[in-house]
Design goal:
Layout: E1 9-12, E2 15-17, H1 20-26, E3 29-36, E4 39-44, E5 47-52, E6 62-64, H2 67-74, E7 82-86, E8 91-94, E9 99-102, E10 107-109, H3 120-134, H4 147-156, H5 163-174, H6 180-190, H7 200-215, H8 220-232, H9 238-248, H10 254-264, H11 269-280, H12 286-305
Parallel strand pairs: 1-9, 2-10, 5-6
Antiparallel strand pairs: 2-6, 3-4, 3-7, 4-5, 7-8, 8-9
């Protein structure tokens, strides 16, 4: 007697990054790369996509579900499980659990930073508010940089303390440079440095690239060198690489976009503070590391305007 086919569970995405279906059409055979409490990553070709909640905002490579649907999806899912893209149904099929994540009815989104013309007066005001929020309590990056001490040394023109600070200070000097050898030397030190699935050095660069997207602070040799290192070499984790690839193309999480927009537009501390605090509180140090990268970007912009 033939057993009846198991009934598929169809979960509907509430929203998805608009480029994801186009990539999946080229690479429909996928696997589960990694799982977390708030989602999982799917590997498609040489790229990753996140399926999960908006706990950390809209991710630049995210397909988002409700918490209830995510719990149902994660039940029985293991790393390396087979996943396939069904183009006719616009859905991802998880073979082991007979679960389907459908994009039909979901809202496509694209989190990009818009370009701003930042006057020196606005920059001075926003930097002052930014610093006052950062310095309300002691904050240390994932690379063990005390932000208050580092900022003080930068403003006073003091020598950097330790190898990591030296590379960060030199990186700041090279952001508008055409010396690709120097740029590459410092980027090689930063990319992939630190613990976790998204190393702190990568988060610094994502924050920096967000400010660049808004203000154009980085030279072409700088961004070209960074892109070449990220694309051609295995210097960091898969997830860290994915964030950097999206950032190099101007795509960021919604929390980064909102904070960057507030830092480069006319604002006040009551608008800026909640956006920065939301970002600062993300992950073990990821939010702080990203905000530190934004600080690097604004300091580079200040040097450029001076």
């Amino acid at each position: 007697m033939t057993r009846p086919q198991a009934r598929r569970t169809i979960l509907h995405a509430t929203e998805y990054q608009q480029q994801i279906p186009f990539h999946l059409a080229k690479h429909p055979v996928c696997t589960v790369h990694s799982t977390f409490q708030n989602g999982l990553n799917i590997k498609s070709g040489d790229r990753l996509f996140f399926i999960g909640t908006v706990k950390n905002g809209r991710l630049p490579f995210g397909i988002h579900l409700s918490q209830e649907d995510l719990d149902r999806l994660l039940n029985g899912i293991n790393e390396n499980s087979a996943v396939s893209w069904e183009p006719n149904d616009r859905s991802l099929s998880f073979g082991e659990t007979e679960t389907v994540v459908s994009l039909v009815g979901g809202d496509p989104f694209d989190c990009k930073v818009s370009r701003e013309l930042v006057t020196s007066e606005r920059l001075a005001d926003n930097l002052a508010m930014f610093a006052s929020i950062l310095l309300e309590e002691p904050r240390v990056t994932g690379l063990d940089i005390d932000i208050e001490l580092w900022l003080t040394r930068q403003l006073e023109g003091s020598l950097a303390n330790g190898l990591t600070e030296q590379h960060l200070s030199a990186l700041l000097e090279s952001m508008n440079s055409s010396n690709t050898n120097e740029i590459e030397r410092h980027l090689r030190y930063i990319i992939g440095r630190g613990q976790g699935l998204t190393p702190s050095g990568d988060d610094h660069l994502v924050g920096l690239l967000a400010i660049h997207e808004a203000t154009g602070i980085l030279s072409d040799p700088f961004t070209d060198t960074l892109r070449q290192l990220v694309v051609q070499e295995a210097l960091t984790t898969d997830i860290g690489r994915e964030y950097l690839l999206y950032a190099l193309n101007g795509h960021f999480s919604s929390t980064v976009v909102e904070a960057t927009s507030a830092l480069t537009r006319k604002t006040d501390i009551y608008m800026l503070k909640p956006l920065l605090l939301e970002l600062l509180e993300m992950g073990h140090s990821s939010g702080t590391d990203t905000v530190f990268g934004m600080l690097l970007g604004l300091l580079a912009l200040r040097r450029k305007t001076e």
